Amino acid sequence: MKKVRVGIVGGAGYTGGELLRLLVNHAGVKITCITSETFPGKKVIEQYPKLKGLSNLTFQSYQKQRVVEAVDFVFLAKPHPNSFAMVRELFGKVRIIDLSADFRFPAAQDFERAYQTKHLAPEFLKESVYGLPEIFPKQIKKAKLIANPGCYPTGVILAVFPLIQKGIIEPEINVSAISGFSGAGRSLSPDSPAYSVVDNIRPYKVGVHPHSAEMEEKIKTATGQEVSINFIPQVAGFERGILSVIFTRLKKKTSPETLVSLYRKTYRKCPFVRVCPQGQYPEIKNVVMTNFCNLGVQILKDNGLVIITAIDNLIKGAAGQAIQNLNIMAGFPEKEALQ
CA-based, 20 to 30 A from 57: which of 18, 187, 190, 233? Predict the structure, then answer.
């Protein structure tokens, strides 16, 4: 397997650490650059002792020319709004996988409406491909700029995409999702939703979380159908994982077997979607430290329907999905480094 040179910008955060941990086992990758503005000059193994013997890299501060000369692919693992300037500097020189929200929307006004801040690089939005491999693999393969999906939207979009596409459910969708506290990142403050979750579950950004708009926009892009999503995110006192419980309504009476069969047919070529047998439901403990999305479905009374998904927010919801995108872009087996 021919190796490609890969860099990680923002390597000292939760997501950067997961990228590094997974990529050291990638047969087709040589990590040639890793940056941190917090730990420049320090050995990576000082921040990640578990990698002793696996990495001799040193954190460096971000410099455009250093990245351009060192890598073929770069992961931008910095929180919003750091990617605007870096994409402007790097686009066309290296292939970019951006894990922030900065390029997930097709139009600047959509981003600005969701995030209440001005988009500073709108000229690159038309170049961006939404990196959900189960739905957009052909576009991902040719992309120069990947917008890695948000963690919550990953599980929700995979849950409803086949049903919306086939016209099986009504367009009104309610989502209650619980995430581990790692979703807030390593830098916490009293205002962080993860600040006080010991023995607690804490709702936050109810009805105003920007991932609602991301879900609605990408479902419309994938199916041509508009949906309305009411989204209630919550953070709890465990480190990693997301359980999403999605409520909607069937347009007509349908059997559970038909729904399970539809999911399996839709995702039959997708190695990281596992559909539960009828009567079984996803649990976070069965996906933590994996790139899988587990999915289960149950019909309720009066044609009500609940779909449940579970993912690891740091892997399928971030770093693992980013590597899945890299594998498609570079022509590697899609499961490389993710088993």
Answer: 187
Q: Is residue 35 part of a domain?
A: yes
Is 337 part of a structural domain of the chain?
A: no
pLDDT tens digit sequence for 106-130: 999 999 999 999 999 999 999 999 9
How many helices (H) and strands (E) the chain has is answered by 10, 13
List, for residues 224-261, the tens digit of each pLDDT value: 999 999 999 999 999 999 999 999 999 999 999 999 99
Residue range(s) defining the domain that contains residue 247: 151-312
How many Cβ atoms from other residues are within 10 Å of residue 168's Cβ? Answer: 18
| Residue 1: C-alpha distances to residues 31, 91, 126 (Å) | 15, 26, 32
Mean pLDDT for all residues in the chain: 95
Q: What pairs with residue 9 in β-bridges?
A: 35, 76
Regarding beta strands 242-249 and 172-180, do their DSSP bridges make them parallel or antiparallel, or are they unpaired?
antiparallel
In a domain, 339, yes or no: no
Distances in Å between the Cα of 129 and the Cα atoms of 104, 192, 197, 200, 221 are: 8, 30, 35, 37, 11
Is 270 assigned a catalytic role? no
Strands 95-98 and 128-130: unpaired
From the CB of residue 164, how many other CB atoms can be counted at a distance below 10 Å? 22
Give the residue among 331, 334, 335, 339 at the shortest CA–CA distance from 3: 331
For 72-104, what is each residue's pLDDT tens digit? 999 999 988 889 999 999 999 999 999 999 999
Per the structure, the count of domains in the chain is: 2
pLDDT of residue 183: 80
Alpha-carbon distance of 4 to 56, in angstroms, equals 18
172 domain-assigned: yes
> How is residue 317 annotated by DSSP?
I
Tokens describing residue 70: 């060192």
Same domain for 159 and 282, yes or no, is yes
Provide mean pLDDT across the span 254-269: 97
List the catalytic residue out of 33, 151, 276, 293.
151
Quick check: 275 and 260 in contact, CB under 8 A?
A: yes
pTM over 0.70, yes/no: yes
